[in-house]
Specification:
This protein is mainly α. It has four helices and no strands. α3 packs antiparallel against α4.
Length: 114
């Protein structure tokens, strides 16, 4: 290190760091503001939502079927029916999430092209 580098003020150091960051961002194509979530985090969020939709649909259907069985005394038939209906509802919810993500992705691509 040169003698004058060791005597830099904090303002000069801050200015130099900003210059290096800007050069790095230009080289990588990143924007200057940090993203709240990266692409990986966004996809993780969608995956977690799909997992919750699946579990919630199956559990809710089975629970309602079990409660109906206890009320009507038809064990285990309404539990089975509730489980099957819960699975169907869960897959319909996952399908809706996938369709919404596809529309969002296409809109983002169209925005990027313009």
């Amino acid at each position: 290190m040169a003698e004058d580098d060791r005597k830099s003020t904090p303002d000069e150091l801050d200015r130099r760091l900003k210059g290096v960051r800007q050069a790095y961002q230009k080289g990588t194509g990143q924007s200057s503001r940090p993203a709240a979530r990266g692409a990986g985090g966004e996809k993780l969020g969608v995956g977690m939502r799909i997992a919750v939709e699946l579990v919630a649909g199956v559990v809710a259907g089975a629970f309602l079927g079990l409660m109906a069985d206890q009320w009507l005394g038809t064990k285990p038939w309404l539990l089975i029916v509730g489980f099957v209906l819960g699975c169907g509802a869960a897959f319909m919810n996952v399908y809706r999430v996938a369709q919404a993500e596809e529309r969002r992705s296409k809109a983002a691509q169209d925005e990027k092209k313009s």
